[in-house]
Design goal:
heterodimer, A: mainly beta, six-stranded mixed β-sheet, five-stranded antiparallel β-sheet, 11 strands, 0% helix, globular, B: mainly beta, seven-stranded mixed β-sheet, four-stranded antiparallel β-sheet
């Protein structure tokens, strides 16, 4: 019940296209859903996060869509750029667990110029 | 301001040895968490410390331990190293809360031979 399932495992997009990464969770106690971006040799960096009281959050080219009833959330990267090529992780945590994050398996995004 | 600092960046140890990794959190952050990242298992939570007390623990054997000092710096120790312990060990610091404001360090790459 603690799992977060992420898809696809890898994604190739042309420059200017839209990248979409999906995650699904089972634990209804999860109430904070961040997305992290990781470049080789670096630790994950927080990209954008959402709480279940809203269905969408947008920050620049990055948007999280959240469907509480389906227990799914997704990351959309608009106007994808080669510099967006990285591994993306969704994560979730329940308020009661302090700072313990459960991560998805990761998506390796490649944006071709 | 300075980010999360992890030392050393790279480490090679022999099976059966023990190892200690260090993490200095962002100034003012009192919560420190540790994660193990491997290609096969992804990002897995090890433990979290807050005010020198372990607040949360993941599903790892007792060979994995940690501690936090009064200045919030943290160390993790792995005893009797196994080949499967080879991984990137990531430290993250945050203000107390449900994953908010999590900042990861660049990690320590441990190779067990």
């Amino acid at each position: 019940q603690q799992q977060v399932k992420q898809s696809p495992q890898s994604l190739i997009v042309q420059k200017g296209g839209i990248s979409i990464i999906n995650c699904a969770y089972e634990n209804t106690a999860f109430d904070y859903f961040p997305w992290y971006q990781q470049f080789p040799g670096k630790g994950p960096a927080l990209l954008i996060a959402i709480r279940p009281d809203v269905s969408e959050k947008k920050e620049g080219r990055f948007t999280i869509s959240f469907n509480k009833s389906a227990k799914q959330f997704s990351l959309h990267i608009m106007d994808s750029q080669p510099g967006d090529s990285a591994t993306y992780f969704c994560a979730a945590t329940p308020k009661t667990s302090g700072s313990r994050l459960t991560f998805g398996e990761g998506t390796q995004l490649t944006v071709n110029p | 301001k300075a980010g999360v600092t992890q030392t050393p960046r790279y480490l090679i140890k022999t099976r059966g040895q023990q190892v200690t990794l260090s993490c200095s959190p962002i100034s003012g952050h009192r919560s420190v968490s540790w994660y193990q990242q491997t290609p096969g298992q992804g990002l897995q939570f090890l433990f979290e410390y807050f005010s020198e007390t372990q607040r949360n623990k993941g599903n790892f054997p007792g060979r994995f331990s940690g501690r936090q000092f009064s200045n919030s710096r943290s160390e993790m120790n792995v005893s009797t190293l196994e080949l499967g312990d080879s991984a990137l060990y990531l430290c993250a610091s945050s203000l107390p809360g449900a994953g908010d404001g999590y900042t990861f360090g660049s990690g320590t790459r441990l190779t067990v031979v």
